[in-house]
Each structure stands twice: as structure tokens, then as C-alpha cells.
Amino acid sequence: MFCLFGASAGPPAAGWFRALEPWYGFLLGTTALFVLVAFVSWLTMRHIPNNKIGVIEKLWSSSGSVPEGRIIALSSEAGFQSELLRGGIHFGYWRWQYVVHKAPLVSVPQGKIAYVYARDGEPLPPSQTLARVVPCTNFQDARRFLVANSQGLRGQRGRQRAILREGVYAINPALFVVITENTVYTLADVHDPMEKAMAGSWRTELVEQNGFDPVVVGAPIETADPVVVDGTIFVDGIGLVTVHDGPSLRPGEIIAPSVGDHVGDPHYHNNFQIPESFLDAGI
Q: Is the pTM higher than 0.70?
């Protein structure tokens, strides 16, 4: 009886293996396919956190490199691309062809302003101090900044006339350096140290001059009392404007004439807040 029981009952594990034997090929094939898909996804997938942007650097391209005198690619050349990756998962950026640099969004605190320096664009002429204003969605559209608009104008490299007001912006740091009161936004692992030091020195100068605070004219100002020795009084404030760009004064003039100061004027500059209108009024 013992022998009969032993003959009819084999090892339990062997029974399971024999039951799964027809599925070996399917399981191996599915596992291999999963590993292949995961590997290909890793090669082409990029994840950008929602509080950052992705700056695309193309390592090689059949279109060649960017033309001489430019640093941003506009026609799929090798180099930094004008488009950004926003928060989320993106496919199609093979690791052997692309490097994606993650950078923070630009944040301008409430009640402050920020300044912008462009690393690419048309060169400034000798008579111009600050770069012209071109529509580019507050510097968030790098391609629109670099490509000529309907008037045949495109952005210029150097310090910009346009400023950024409070808010959060998705700006390409490969093209623009943004200077706020607390931070200089650059492409940290790419920009030249001398370039970053230059932007840092500008930030220091602006902080010393309260350059990140909007100008308030008319608030009481404490000044020396002309009657009481060592005394002080509060007087109403006025604003004196010095312009570093635009046409020169006529011979014999020491104060520039008033232009564009009426709301109905086509060159109304709203108390020097629209620099393009002010400069157009003086042409």
C-alpha cells in the first residue's frame, strides 16, 4: 500500500513546472518585451518637474551647427534650441543626441521688477545703449525674439529696454539672463563664469540703487531744515529723469524738450514707462 501511494504521488514542484511549461515561451517573450520597452523609454523619455523648465541642447544634427555669430538654433541645428520643455513627461529626445538641462522658472517677487540681458540677436549699433523692444511674450518666446517680425525687426543682444514685472515666467536661460533682486537666472552648468560674474555685478549695482523697486514720485522725503540747525523736515518729492539713449540734444540745449506726455499723443510713453514710444517721439 505504501509502494502504491509512493508511485502515484510525485514531487509537488515538478507538477507545477509541468503545468507551466506551455507558458514558458510566452512569459519569457513578455518579460523581454517589457525590458525592451522600458529601456527604449529610458533612452527617449524626459521628465520635467512642474516648477522647472527643460533647456534642449542638441549634440549633433544633419543640419550642421548654428551659423557663426549665433548661439541659439532655429532650424534644428546642433546647439541650444529655442523651444523649451515644460513640466511633464516628454518623449523623442534620445540620450545620445540630446542633453536636457533643467532650470527653474523665473520668479519676480511682488512689488519688484527684473532686468533682462540677451545673449543672442542682432548686435547693438554704436549709438544705441539698450536693445529695442520686440513682441516676444515677456521673453518667453525665444524664436519670436530672434526671428524678424512683420516690420523686419528682431531682438538685439545685450541689456534690454523691456523689464519684467512681478510674476512667474518660463524663459530660456540659454538665450536670456534674468536679474532679480535675489537671484541671477542663468544656465548654471553651461554659462561662462565671467558672464555670470558680470551679471552678478550688475545685480549688486542695482540693489545699491534700489533699482528693483518701482519708482514712487510724490511721497514725502526727509531733508535738512533750512531754518533749524541740525533739524529735518518732510517735503513733497519730485522726479528728475536722465535718459541714456536716444537722439542727442540740439546745440545750445541742456534740457531735453517734453515729448509724448499727453494721453492722446501717438507716442504717449506714460511717464517714461514705455521706452519705445518715448524714443519714437524724439526721432
A: yes
